[in-house]
Amino acid sequence: MKNWKRRLYVSWICLLGCAIILISCSRNSSEPEPQPAPNEPSLYWGIDTASIIDSSFYRCVEQSFGKPAVAGRYLGTKDGVSHGMTAEEVQLLHGKDIKILLIHNHFNDARGYRNGKDEAREAIENAQKLGVPEGIALFADIEPDYPVDADFIRGWVEAISPSPYEPGIYGDFSQGSPILSAYNGAVNANPKIGEITILWAYQPQVGVTTQKSAPDYAPEVPQQSNGWIWQYGIDSEICNIDTNLIRKEAMAYLW
Predict the structure, then answer these.
(1) CATH number (domain holding residue 85)
(2) Which terms in the Gene Ontology molecular function aspect does this entry carry (predicted)?
């Protein structure tokens, strides 16, 4: 009697196991196969401007040039040069899935370690006032005619790197340029600068284009650098914009 019960119990367990396997196979066969995510573009087209971007300005850009993936704007106003970004602009751009490249330009002399640190602190304060989240890059705007040295770049990077933000530098990094010499000097003094700093290159200039007519990505930047953004065209007569190409590596550091 005991053997009969044991055989019945084993048979019941086997039947139950087969039923579970059949149900599982049926569910798996009915579920759609997971689809791979579409490939992320390797390059994005964008603009930067000293003007406030409102709905009218945005329409001008979209109708004349195309839809930007990135818009460069300034942290705070510099009288006679650029309008600082507003909360309304942030809302408008983010509502259109446009990332914001943040620029600090409240100086015209890029020399001295303390000067670099002071400018970085001001940029950090302005970013925090605007509600910029951590991990976003702040770019020091070192124009081609500014005096510049390695100490300023060290001060800028070494003040921003321990903050919630990441260091970036805009400038002319072509061979023989003062900023290239200053950047190389800063990297020689602190190799970490080359590893963490994002470069936004001004050269070469090929002229403003539409999104569809943008050139191949070819900025002049130091080898082994994070040369991820190229401002290839400046001073458009329409809409007051410059045009840029942005590598996908930079997108995570834009707001």
Answers:
(1) 3.20.20.80
(2) hydrolase activity
